[in-house]
Structure formats: C-alpha cells, structure tokens
Amino acid sequence: MRATLLGLASLIFGAFAWASDPRIEHAAEGARLYRAECAPCHGPTARGRGDEAWLFDPPPPNLRIAQLDRRDPNALVLRILDAPESVVPSPKALAASAARTDALVSYLERLPRVNWALAGRGRSVYIDRCERCHGVFGHPSPTPPDTGAPRPRDLAASPFPVDDKRLAALIRHEREGMPSLSREIADADVQALVAFVRLLSPGHETYQVSCARCHGDEGIPPRGGKEPAVVFDGAYFAAHDTRFVRSKVWHMLGDRRPESMPHFRGVLTEPQAHAIVDYLQLLPPD
Q1: Measured between alpha carbons, how far is residue 2 from residues 7, 9, 16, 170 in Å?
Q2: E-only strand ranges, the chain
Q3: What is the DSSP string of 139-206?
C-alpha cells in the first residue's frame, strides 16, 4: 500500500513538474514548425523515418533519445540554424539523380523544336479539360474522381503514337473511363492539345519544378532581374553536345542533392528554432 502511494505521488509530482516546465509555452509552436521543416527527413514522430529519409545513408537519426533532454538548448538551436554536420546521399538517391538528369537532358534538347504558341494554347485546353483527372504533370490522382471509374492514364509515362493524327483521334474519341471530346472541342484545340500532351514527361516535370522559374518555360529566360545567361535555343545545342549538357545538368541537380543537413538560418528565427528544441526535448524518449 505504501509503495502504491509513493508511486502515485511520484507520478503526480512528475506530471506537475512537466506541466510547469517553461518549455511547454513554446512546444505547440515548435511541433508545428517541426512538422513543416523537419518531419520530411526525421519523420512525424522524430524517429528518423520521414518520407525523404531514403535520400541519406545512413538515414537521419532518431531524435527520441534520452540524452536529448539533457543537451544545451542553445547548442541544439545552433545545429538547427547552421547545420555543421555532413550527411551522405544514398546510392538510391544518386541513381534517382542520374535518372532525372537523363530525362531533363532529353527534354532540354527538345525545347528549340517546340511550337510554343501551339503548346501554350494546348496547355490552356489541358488545364480546362484534362488536368482534373490527369494532374498538372500528367500523373493522375491516386483515386479516380468518379466512384467506380478506372484510374486515368499516366500521360507522363505513356508512349504515344508517333503520328499526330492518331494521337488526336485518341484524344477526341471516348475510351474506357474517358469521356468523348468529339462534339465538344474544335479541331484547332485538338491540335494544340496534342502539342502540349507530347511535352508531358519526367523531363518536363523536372524542368518545370527546378528550372523554368529562372530559364523560362521555353528555355528563354524572362527579361528583368538576375536572369541566367544560358538560352536553350538551337545555337546553344549546336555549340554543346549531349555529354556537355548532361554534365551541367548533373551539377545543377547535384546542388540539390543532400550533402549536408539543411541549415535553416534565414528560414527560421532563433525563437522558432528554440521552439523546435523545446518540443523535441519534451518528447518522451524511446
């Protein structure tokens, strides 16, 4: 009985001490910031199993360790802000970068041959008629928009007929799970849609996400600001072979490969980093 009372008193005292811990005030904000900035690598529960953990070898560490609560919070804040430690890309991440490089080089070499006026019109038609089912980059959503309908085709991964007329016929006429556009779309819009659909590919997606903001959708940088000097036109590819372009692309994508833990100075303030530390130090250790 006495042991039970002592155990209960210890539990109550521990709960009271935790509730009176000054770090509690910032822990909720720290949890929100952790989920936004840290969880992709360290996992939603801080055990090192985030969605992007596969990029690293070894993977990000488990932060639910007993020693974390005893470490100097100021030192932990500096680690978050300035990230002194190095990490190594995993072989799988390097292979993924190689695949992205090859896809992007193939796409870049197509840029000078694209009829951009036609493809631009086709993009507008695609957004209006196709994006809901096939997604921004041609990838359908995991679940069909209509109950019972088959999953739409992945346009970025699908081989298409070489002949534009055959592709136009596929676009126009009803297929399983795809409504017919025959009576609802003008011939000019079909031809424009064909031009845009032919752009959909892994290289197109990588270019739009990683390059278009500076280099422009057409490979021509927008005027104004600090635009890059490179223009991906016919003259550029006449002067540079595929091997040269690939080396430049690999370097560009390589800059985005993880070589060190991301530093957050300029992204997080010191109080925000302290809030994350408060949250992590209050997590129960494994």
Answers
A1: 9, 10, 21, 81
A2: none
A3: PPPSS-SSTTPPPPP-TTS----SSHHHHHHHHHS-BTTB---TTTS-HHHHHHHHHHHTT-SHHHHH
Q: What is the CA radius of gyration of the chain?
A: 26
Distance (Å, rounded) from C-alpha 86 to C-alpha 103?
29
Question: Does domain 23-89+260-282 bear CATH number 1.10.760.10?
Answer: yes
How confident is the model at residue 273, as a pLDDT? 92
Distance CA 267, CA 120 (A): 35
User: Which tokens in the block code for residue 19?
Assistant: 């509730």
> Over 70: is that where the pLDDT of 254 sits?
no
The whole-model pTM stands at 0.57
Can you give the residue ranges of every domain in the chain? 23-89+260-282, 93-114+200-257, 115-198
Helices 164-172 and 187-197: crossing angle in degrees, nearest 10, is 110
Cβ count near 198 (within 10 Å): 17
Residue range 10-62, pLDDT digits in tens: 443 444 444 567 788 888 999 999 988 888 889 899 998 887 787 777 888 89
Mean pLDDT value of segment 61-90: 83
Rounded Cα distance between 31 and 192, Å, is 47
Do the domains spanning 23-89+260-282 and 115-198 agree at the CATH topology level? yes
CATH number of 115-198: 1.10.760.10
